[in-house]
Amino acid sequence: MAEIKLQNVVKKYGPLEVVHGIGLDIEHNEFVVLVGPSGCGKSTTLRMIAGLEEISDGTISIGPQVVNDLPPRKRNISMVFQNYALYPHMSVRENLGFGLKIAKQPEAVVAERVREAAEILGLEELLERTPAELSGGQRQRVAMGRAIVRHPEAFLFDEPLSNLDAKLRVQMRTEIKKLHQRVKTTVVYVTHDQVEAMTLADRIVVMKDGWIEQVGTPMEVFNHPLNTFVASFIGSPPMNLIDAEIADNRIVLSDGTQLPIPERLEQHVRDGQKVVFGLRPDDLTPQGHGIAESGHRATVELTVELAELLGTETILYTRINGSEVLGKMFDPRDVSPGERMTFNISLDKVHLFDAETQKSVRLG
Amino acid sequence: MDTALKKRIGKAVTWVMTFLLMLIICLPGLWVVLTGFRPNREVLAKPAIWIPEELTLNNFAQIFGFGAEQVAIPVPAYFTNSLIIALTSTVIAILIGMSGGYAFARFRFRFKDGIFLGLMLSRTVPGIALSLPVFMIWSRLGLIDTKPGLIIVYVALNIPFTIWLIDGFFRQIPKEMSEAAQVDGCTRWQAFWKIEFPLARSGIASAAIFAFLTSWNEYALASQLTRSTDSKTLPVGLMDFTAQFTIDWAGMSAMAVIIIVPALILTFIVQKHLISGLTFGGVKG
Ligand SMILES: Nc1ncnc2c1ncn2[C@@H]1O[C@H](COP(=O)(O)OP(=O)(O)O)[C@@H](O)[C@H]1O
Ligand SMILES: [Mg+2]
């Protein structure tokens, strides 16, 4: 039951700085997801919040208290690790009750809280087993149970689903979401999977190379990426990024295609500016196969090189001036490779980034 | 039918080979044990008496000073010395091995690889090569023919091995175990004793057995550094049976049995740990 504040937090390993002065305000009961490619400093950040890594500079506070110098046990948080880290020599019951026992809670309280957690997570039948006798999903559940029994101020999750197979991952994702709705608590959740981030988060924190690239709701991050990195990282398949230039009040793509500049972006670009033109595959659709074919549109002729059937939609691989560009066909029909098709571009949805800074032109 | 037969023959061959191999390994040991229970004149008889005609406990009785004939060898004192020296040096080597192994497995510190390599290299020097320098230093320090003198030597001998083995075991335990315990409310110290130590216990037990057996059986250094009942250990005492012109083979064998039995018992007690320990920690460690 607490907000978590990071101010100018730095982490150095010897001379190597891996987190460069990040700031973040996490609200009470908020579900925040740190997402970014492997090695970008997500785990390090989470472990600094947990107190498992010292911070090199800055302040971290949980609730009203600055916790910089507090050991993990005094921070009143719990953590679910990627490999679960269940205690192999204890039964599920003992695993769940371990933290309360250490805190010298009376046995009746321990039993009651363990029962409660077991019920929430459906572990009643498994209490006498050891971790070795559990499946991956069950271990995952025990790890979550161990986190909730102590009624902590915040839950920290470090890639908790990455060891599960795809089907189970989706199922557990839903369970985590439900768990958060049931056990209202602040959650900081680390993943490299942007789908997990989008589905779970109240707010997403996109990280790269030890910097925070963008903080926002899933919708904000998806619809208004602040730079090309966020644009290509969030969303699947990723946003197409095509080199372009502004000339005569038009966007000129690298293959010469000319497109009008959407009104909302007009005042943000200048003539002669080199830009990166961003377009999600969902907004590049063959005529007659878009989602909602209204609003401003432009059309381009493209050759389909490959069609990837997904059922309700088909991903179309094409090329603009040598670089691969993906489109999406909703309500699909058969497409043969080499077929030339006319594509609609939803101008309302296009993004423009400055080629030099790679930042959205809307940032000025 | 053919394959079934082949399988059975294969199995039979395996068993015969195993039996022969075990025979080769065990025969000397069995012979020693057998000799320990035979009268000396039968042992020395010419032509050799292969099948024992008489079995007796006299040799043991003599060693421990019962019965008519007394052997002038203070076996009980040697036994006590051996026990005290082996146990003490094992306990110390394990305590240091645990701290050192944990440090190597968990912490980063300067010259870590160098120190580890140095420890391992120290084991490449045969103990006997050290006996002269150790003898000289020990005589200056007045440690010759004392139990602490031998204990220190054995601790030094065992530490590289215990550190190496225990390090391997702690390495196998993900560090997240201890971290989870710390988040769960433990101090680092508590996390060690409640989580990491129980998980490494089989490894520590194996290290302890090896350290104990090394100290218990060591002869070369002990023969240089001990003189009297103050510190002489059983293996050194064994040589008391050789007089200038005669060797009391039966008595010597009886004493060898006394040396072997505690080691065997100990190994059986921790055998379960030992096997799981060796396969768990030894492979990757
Ligand atoms: N103990 C350490 N010593 C040195 N560098 C480390 C250590 N732990 C992590 N790093 C480095 O810090 C960076 C961030 O790591 P991490 O936070 O684990 O990334 P992520 O969880 O986002 O994949 C990586 O480049 C990693 O190599
Ligand atoms: Mg990580």
From TrEMBL, chain A:
GO molecular function: ATP binding
ABC transporter domain residues: 4-234
Membrane topology, record value: Peripheral membrane protein
Keywords, ordered alphabetically: ATP-binding, Nucleotide-binding, Transport
Localization per Swiss-Prot or TrEMBL: Cell inner membrane
SMART domains from the UniProt entry: AAA
Signal sequence bounds: none
Keyword Zinc on entry: no
SUPFAM superfamilies: MOP-like (SSF50331), P-loop containing nucleoside triphosphate hydrolases (SSF52540)
Transmembrane intervals: none
PROSITE patterns, sorted: ABC_TRANSPORTER_1, ABC_TRANSPORTER_2
Protein family according to the UniProt entry: Belongs to the ABC transporter superfamily.
Protein name: Sn-glycerol-3-phosphate ABC transporter ATP-binding protein UgpC
Gene giving rise to this polypeptide: ugpC
Automatic annotation (TrEMBL), chain B:
Name of the molecule in the record: Maltose/maltodextrin transport system permease protein MalG
Subcellular location: Cell membrane
Keyword Transmembrane in annotation: yes
Annotated keywords: Cell membrane, Membrane, Sugar transport, Transmembrane, Transmembrane helix, Transport
InterPro entries: BP-dep_ABC_trans_perm, MetI-like, MetI-like_sf
Main location (coarse class): membrane
CDD domains: TM_PBP2
UniProt-listed SUPFAM superfamilies: MetI-like
Statement: the UniProt record of this protein carries the keyword Transmembrane helix: yes
Family matches, as Gene3D superfamilies: MetI-like
Function description: Part of the ABC transporter complex MalEFGK involved in maltose/maltodextrin import. Probably responsible for the translocation of the substrate across the membrane.
